[in-house]
Design a protein that fits this description.
binds SN-glycerol-3-phosphate; binds magnesium ion; alpha/beta; GP_PDE_dom
């Protein structure tokens, strides 16, 4: 599964060039040459898994208020592209199923970040994984990840063979024992908080280290030099070109 992990993973699709977590953004990541994309999944009021990052609709759609207050049918009347650029008017908040169909069509690997509305950790993981599992061919690369340990515990229980990435921002002091307990396959860490020593400490656990979010070629090169395996980037095409040009 992780043997095909590329150096660059499209963050929320290709967030620099298209509205994040939309089908257009996934398409744009593939067009730019990304081989994997990362997207965030949350539940609607009627417990349908959809791609969205924030707890509220305000920033990335024409709606407002908390995501779990709306049923899917109502969410689908909102525009999720207009805020980004007039060229994307008509984009919707995609269901996980729609996103997965496109990921297959484009031949991409997927990092599905389980991003529960606060208090909905277990149900979000259960619903998302139960939706994804019947759609996912066993030979296509898939990494499940979350900042929320209860989500990773659900993934471990329901679908143990799929690798889990433990997302860290301000790691708890016992992050290493948590990573062991949940059987984390990767450590997905904030790029800005890393040093050569911190990356070495993470790597000493034997896990690949992935860093979010890196849009600068110089920083990517530094992180790779410290042993980071892959970076999440809003600009997979631009970053690949800049890294190649400076190589
Ligand atoms: O999964 C990497 C990255 O997406 C985590 O942070 O807030 O962009 O979902 P965020
Ligand atoms: Mg994310």
């Amino acid at each position: 599964m992780l043997s095909t992990l590329p150096r660059l993973i499209g963050h929320r699709g290709a967030k620099e060039s298209a509205p994040e977590n939309t089908l257009a953004s996934i398409r744009e990541a593939a067009r730019q040459g990304a081989r994997w994309v990362e997207v965030d999944v949350m539940l609607t009021r009627d417990q349908r898994p959809v791609l969205i990052h924030d707890d509220t609709l305000d920033r990335t759609t024409t709606g407002s208020g908390a995501v779990p207050l709306l049923e899917l049918a109502d969410l689908q009347t909102l525009d999720a592209g207009r805020w980004f650029d007039a060229a994307f008017v008509g984009e919707r908040v995609p269901t996980l199923e729609e996103a997965v169909a496109l990921v297959h069509e484009l031949g991409l690997g997927l990092n599905l970040e389980i991003k529960p509305y606060p208090g909905q950790e277990e149900i979000t993981a259960e619903v998302a994984l139960n939706a994804l599992r019947p759609l996912w061919p066993s030979d296509r690369p898939l990494l499940l990840s979350s900042f929320e340990v209860p989500c990773l515990e659900v993934a471990q229980r329901l679908w143990p063979e799929i690798p889990r990435g433990y997302l860290l921002w301000d790691p708890p002091s016992d992050w290493a024992s948590i990573a062991d307990r949940i059987g984390a396959a990767t450590l997905n860490v904030h790029q800005d908080r890393q040093t050569a020593d911190s990356v070495a400490e993470y790597r000493a656990t034997g896990r690949p280290v992935l860093a979010y979010t890196v849009n600068d070629a110089e920083r990517a090169r530094t992180l790779f030099g410290w042993g980071v395996s892959a970076v999440f980037t809003d600009a997979p095409g631009r970053l690949a070109a800049e890294l190649a040009a400076d190589a």
